[in-house]
Give the backbone structure.
Amino acid sequence: MIDSKPILVVDDEQLILDLMKDLLKYKNIGVVVANNGKEGFICFKKYRPNIIFIDLKMPKMNGIELMEKILAEDPTVSVIIFTGGATVDTAVEAMRKGAFDYISKPIDVNEISLLVDKIVKSQTLLTEKNLLQDQLDELFGFRNFIGVSRQIRKVYEQIKQVSQTDSTVLITGDSGTGKELVANALHYSSKRKGKPYIKVNCAALPETIIESELFGHEKGSFTSAVTRRIGRFELANTGTIFLDEIGDIPISTQVKLLRVLESREFERIGGNETIKVDIRLITATNKDLEKAVKDGKFREDLYYRLNVINIKMASLAERKEDIPILAQHFLEKYATEMNKPITKISKKALKILKSYHWPGNVRELVNAIERAVVFCKGQMLTEKDLPPTIMAHAFGLSVSLNLPSYSLSLAEKTLLQKALKVTNWNLKRSANLLEISRGTLYSKIEKQNINKKQSLL
């Protein structure tokens, strides 16, 4: 029995109550009985049963009224109505207002037994499905979005709005920023969350097989096609398909993908049958698709079809206020997994983490914290536990400027050159490192007459 909860039977006939008690006892199912609607509602509040049998005609509160009152509090309850000399009208009204089923009196014991088995099986499957969905939501939903920065809050809001639609979404951003996390959240917070969710890394598929992987093929359509293959789009029917690294898809496949977006139909390779699909498409890339369009490497019409809604993931260097929160989250995760008593990160270690430019973004931060937890011997993670690459960067920043005078202009120029050299002239990261805007950095570079060739020597 689900959660060991009893079945509630509400009927003003004692004979029916006794019959139901004997039947359910025989099936090793607990039972609670009540002989009127008022008492039945009290029992419902106390025991919270998943299955309730209710007589249609009772004094003071009839079966329909009691059912509506119960379902208003818990719409997941399965209510079966007992009705004497049932007419089509009463049966239809009961079902229309939420009854799982109805049974005519005189009661058929075998009918009730089969119905109880059916409901228990149905609710067990529903409970398991809800448990699995909760686990998926935990793994892939909003709970994995961590941060307080303006950029990440904007992403939260976009996902909340977009997830309730079937609009095609293009997620952009550098590698390691969490684009797949956005795709997961879009699916698992949408109306399709209980449906298939198919992920495809386009960059990992050779050009010779990508079309077959996406759209499938018929037996004998090419030399190695020894059996029919169902493609990813067909597998994703009624659900969501996520095409990661969409910028790596070959031009020849782009044509077929465009057709799917326009008509939601395609044919398997070597096949004549037109297959229609109901899918929600999400794509992601770290490439500049507009540039790829100009270079003739990506179809312009496909780009506009994909870019209906764009969600941009900021680099970690652009949302440095999230670094302490993320670092603490990953610390707790790996400390728990490794059964280590580490609870916090030292202020100096956090300062170093915030000063680093994070070319690998959140993915690099995850790896850095995991490694630090492995080597940490105390209850606090310190700068000594951080990876050498991060520490080398930190020491590089703390080196004396070795200036021949106290000239502020010279100090500024030297510091600008060092920052540009450390980031290999990545202006966005240099600006973040210097804690100034990119516009200010441009002005200072021109004012100090700094050129790339000289600063990298």
